[in-house]
Design goal:
Elements (H helix, E strand, L loop, with lengths): L9 H8 L1 H5 L44 E12 L14 E13 L1 H4 L3 E14 L7 E13 L3 E14 L8 E15 L4 E14 L5 E15 L2 E14 L4 E15 L2 E14 L5 E13 L5 E13 L6 E16 L3 E16 L4 E19 L4 E13 L6 E13 L1
Antiparallel strand pairs: 1-2, 1-18, 2-3, 3-4, 4-5, 5-6, 6-7, 7-8, 8-9, 9-10, 10-11, 11-12, 12-13, 13-14, 14-15, 15-16, 16-17, 17-18
Length: about 425
């Protein structure tokens, strides 16, 4: 992800999770789509008031300050379909309020970036004005260790989130606990040759639905064929412990990284996935890919576009996977380093496969989101903003719905 001159999106991501989240977008098996990061509930899109990083956290950039940052986000919004139910008869609206204090320790603020530790904790109190049965306590936390040597980079991270969420595959307002452990090691072999090794564990546990555990490992070799172009070849392997039949998978992928200028970068990974399901003699072969580019035509302008195709495990349907193919975009424009406008959207098509019967079925959906946000950085210590978001899920078989949200927040940082 390219850092904006005033880091509109990247700063709060980095403040919360460190560099590990930015490394987590590699094509590494299921859950490699846009929802693969564990995000603090108060910063989540689409169900929480502003999406991450709509404003600059200047205090986090001040190396003369203590290595501890703390503050709070106060947010409120109206959701006209909190249970994401189909039709007008099932729609239930409510005003929702979030209080999210946070604290971050970042040793790199004083010691530099060669060897750093970052720890973040953010509890969240969510209150529904008319449906108090949905009130909940949420919490997120992360630990990131980073080492930068002359020939190698190492990042070790642990992330945790206990949040309340709604999404097409979940079909309602559900609580989920998410754990992610990542070890990423990059090594420079020669002037143009490098290697990347990654190990990852993902655990999702739902109070209503079917959880999953997944372990993934990958090895990539990367070669700089030209000063602005790097090609890579990699293998991925993993196993999933599911409440339905367990699975194993392998991938063979190619990768290209192209950076023609400082303002434009493009990355793509594509290949084939081979998946085996417990109790079946068949191996499913599926093309998978992940691609994106970032463009900064001017200092205060950032444009990103991404696309993906990956397997995911269903939280709603027992013994089901779904193949998700989608794209997203975001355009952010700054004005005088104080005001930031963002327009973003996404589309995802999902088609389900019954692992018990080892065949496809008629479960599918087409999911759209569109979001507009405006944020104002008053000074180094506080900011405010507002947003509108539209969500629509088109499906004859999986909880088709329309949802509108409008909200505002204020954030204090010291």
């Amino acid at each position: 992800m390219t850092t904006l001159p005033a880091p509109v999106l990247t700063m709060l991501w980095t403040l919360t999770f460190g560099t590990s989240v930015l490394l987590a977008q590699e094509l590494s098996g299921p859950m490699a789509g846009p929802t693969d990061a564990v995000v603090p509930r108060a910063l989540q899109s689409p169900d929480r008031a502003l999406e991450p990083g709509a404003v600059t956290d200047a205090a986090a950039q001040d190396n003369t300050r203590l290595p501890i940052t703390f503050g709070a986000t106060l947010a409120g919004y109206y959701d006209d379909n909190i249970y994401i139910q189909p039709g007008d008869a099932g729609r239930t609206g409510d005003f929702i309020y979030d209080i999210v204090p946070f604290i971050t320790y970042n040793s790199a603020r004083n010691t530099g970036v060669d060897n750093s530790v970052q720890v973040t904790y953010a509890p969240g109190f969510v209150v529904y004005q008319d449906h108090s049965g949905n009130d909940t306590f949420e919490q997120t936390g992360s630990f990131v260790y980073g080492y930068h040597g002359s020939r190698c980079d190492l990042v070790v991270s642990q992330q945790y989130a206990s949040v309340q969420n709604s999404a097409p595959d979940e079909g309602d307002l559900v609580k989920v606990q998410e754990y992610r452990t990542v070890v990423n090691f990059d090594y420079i072999i020669g002037a143009k040759l490098s290697a990347s090794v990654r190990a990852q564990q993902d655990i999702d546990d739902y109070d209503q639905g079917f959880g999953s555990k997944q372990w993934t490992g990958s090895l990539y070799l990367n070669y700089e064929i030209m000063p602005k172009t790097t090609l890579g070849f990699g293998v991925v392997g993993g196993a999933a412990d599911l409440e339905g039949p367990n699975q194993t998978f392998q991938q063979v992928n190619g990768r290209v990284v192209y950076t023609p200028t400082e303002k434009l970068s493009f990355t793509a990974t594509a290949g084939g996935e081979f998946r085996q399901t417990q109790g079946s003699s068949e191996t499913t072969v599926t093309p998978v890919f992940s691609a994106g580019f970032t463009y900064n035509p001017w200092d205060d302008t950032n444009i990103t576009v991404s696309a993906y195709r990956s397997y995911n495990y269903s939280a709603k349907f027992f013994g089901q996977d779904y193949l998700a193919t989608g794209t997203s975009f975001s355009v952010t424009q700054g004005f005088r380093e104080k005001l930031w406008a963002t327009l973003s959207g996404s589309y995802e098509n999902a088609h389900y496969e019954d692992n018990l019967a080892d065949e496809a079925n008629d479960l599918d959906y087409d999911y759209f989101t569109l979001r507009a946000a405006l944020d104002y950085q008053a000074n180094d210590w506080w900011s405010l903003g507002g947003y509108y978001q539209y969500r629509r899920n088109i499906s004859a078989t999986i909880n088709g719905f329309v949802d509108n949200q409008v909200g505002a927040r204020v954030r204090f940082t010291y």
